[in-house]
Amino acid sequence: MTETAIPEGAIDEPVERNVTPFELFFDLVFVFGFTEVTTLMGAHPTGRGVLQGMLVLAAVWWAWGAYAWLATTIDLEEGWTRLVMIGVMAAMFIAALAAPDAFTDTGVLFACAYLVVRVLHLVLYAVAARGSPELLDAVLHFTPTSVAGPLLILAAAFVDSGFREAIWAAALLLDFAGPALQDSSGWQLTPGHFSERHGLIILIALGESIVALGVGGHLDLDARTIIAATLGIGVVTAMWWMYFDVVAIVAARRLAQATGAAQTALARDSYSYLHFPMVAGVILFALGVKKALPHAHESLDWTPAAALCGGVALYLVAHILFRLRNVGTLNRQRLIAAVVLSCMVALASSVSALVLLALVAATTTSLVAYEAVHFREARHRVRAARG
Question: Which of 84, 133, 263, 340 is within CB 3.0–4.6 Å of 258 for a Cys-Cys bond?
Answer without folding.
Answer: 263
